[in-house]
Amino acid sequence: MFAPTYFDHNATTPLDARVLDAMLPYLQTRYGNASSRHEYGRTARSAIDTARQQVAAAVGAHPTEIIFTSGGSEANNLFIRGTAATLRPACVAVSAIEHPCVREPAKELVRQGWRLHEIAVDANGVINTDDYALALAEPARLISIMLANNETGVLQDIPALAAQAREYGGGAWFHSDAVQALGKLPLDFRALNASGVHALTVSSHKIYGPQGAAALVLDKRLDLRPLISGGGQERNLRSGTENVAAIVGFGVACELATQQLRDEAPRQMRLREKLESGLAATGATIFGRAATRLPNTTFFAVADIDGETLVAQLDRAGFAVASGSACSSVSPAPSRTLMAMGVEMNVARGAVRISVGRGNSEEDVERFLQAFGETIVKLKSMAALAA
Amino acid sequence: MIKFPIYLDYSATTPVDPRVAAKMIPYLTEKFGNPASRSHSYGWEAEKAVEDAREEVAQLVNADSKEIIWTSGATESNNLAIKGAANFYQGKGKHLITMKTEHKAVLDTMRELERVGFEVTYLDPLENGLIDLAKFKAALRADTIVVSIMYVNNEIGVIQPIEEIGEICRDKGIIFHVDAAQATGKVAFDLNKLKVDLMSFSAHKTYGPKGIGALYVRRKPRVRLEAQMHGGGHERGLRSGTLATHQIVGMGEAFRIARTEMATENERIRMLRDRLWNGLSGIEEVVLNGDMEQRVAHNLNVSFAFVEGESLIMAIKDVAVSSGSACTSASLEPSYVLRALGRPDELAHSSIRFTIGRFTTEEEIDYTIDLLRNKIGKLRELSPLWEMHQEGIDLNTVQWAAH
To answer: Which of A36, A232, A244 sits opposite B322 (nearest CB)?
Structure first.
């Protein structure tokens, strides 16, 4: 069967074969419930303990700081809703470019009497320091700023922002969604925590692990209410029978991510540079190019070419990429990240994201640029005919 | 050949059926797309698999696939159903009703609601574990908004009269939630007929993988919920988060197998359960917990008087079962379910839950019977209480000296 070249690693990654091997016994013979006290249960429990150590090691945390959840969305919801439930309604500040699973729970808090401050970003997608200072002056009691943006790959200076919150803020709890950062950058919760970061979200399926497992890395001084009660798993912060196979997979994926980071990050960065010089030659705009970004992500648009159409053409040519619109409904809305960066609507509508990964080669990029060039010529001539 | 320890703890979790695992693996390898990816075939393929599985889950319970919402498991489903309905309908009232024998996922959720101002009635069961319908009717109030009663109890396996409870709730316009985690594949039912508004399902109690469950949300008459997890708007806004395709595929296949094989499988399991009970009921001073008729075929919950449950568990290490003490902490607490039936602590402590399943064999049952007979005899030989009982002393009349 013909498999398209996968260039959408920020959406989800293929499972590493070694991760699958580690998981399979837990889908076959080692099926115990980790809460059971017999041998089957103890085997499951010890597998979870090992995975917790592996995840902790990958993010520079202590194993007791790892709260397993079903996914990144749940971990982000747990932080925002769970912390807010212990506080009197005040100000919650999130960046204007957060993933919906941060923005939406923050908006939910408004219904409970909270004020929401969406922190502005500049044209490169970097936090606007003046607006951030305003948020701190509110004062914000909860702050969530993503480490790396899922669309542009632009990084925020989280240690500096957290330190500033601690120095000038009103004693805010500071969280960072690091789902896109894990495996692409070194992460050190110990150091971040020392700067004033209290919690991080990381997820398995973005690092060649399975879907269905993620973690909230949590400073234990934080008081929060669980989103899901009943059973008392995960220090009572997340009840429910543990998804042993997925957690085991997440652990191994973390270990592999750490091992491969040193070689993979620069390799993917070279692929992206090759890609971007090719794209720029066709006149594409690359968003956030002046900012520090993830090594694997490029978000771009070609003037007068609709992103959805381009993506569909590329799919036909055998390349799986993402369009920049949140097409969750019938009418595709332009990327909120680009809107926050002040990108013109007609440019934003053309946005396409390529996120390379471990399986991509230089040859993939060359083939892509060839196909891309041809597609652009075709679409432009079609547009000219229509005009 | 018997594989030790013999697994008789199918209500804690079930092995993944090999057919389920086989169906899952392609979605862990080449078909790895995110079902929310709309721009390429990896995403479309995953989305189709998710929708096919949704249809399988709906078919087992005769629901519309649009009524099935994926969650991470029955615990999350219970939380979403109860908190979601209570929050949505709080304008109509503040009162909820449940039973003392519910799973912690329901009881702890109720406690959370009490913290924020809701009122909850916890009904005592009858001695056989079933709901007392008269008491239930008496507990209903004008401001009752949600009733949550489990279909099949996880410890004693009794089946609650969901049809009757549903009629009463619908009549009064009360939202009725049912935790059916232990019911799928064990009890045949039809959501077209039952007047249930919300129902929680789990995959890993029905030979599917852990980490996936579903919530049935009735469309006619329409039931509304307040989402508990917000974000990308997945699952019609009721539950955001990337869907774990391989797990969903596994749950679909597990529920398909349950639908096609349930009738014959339950007969076989009932035979094994009866064989086990025949073997154990011959032992002196053995008490069955929970109604024997209104009960799933898979469950046998037995108290062995004059034997301490923990020592018994240690003595029968060859058999993986659950005891009646929930040893979640350093202290041993007797099962709150058995206590709610009115069992004294000693009997609750000495109880064992045997749950039989798809891969249990006759040979395993026979081995278990022999082992139990032998070990109980030995443990009782060591017990001064048993000796006194043998001598005809009524232990309830003994004046114990305090130290």
So the answer is: A36
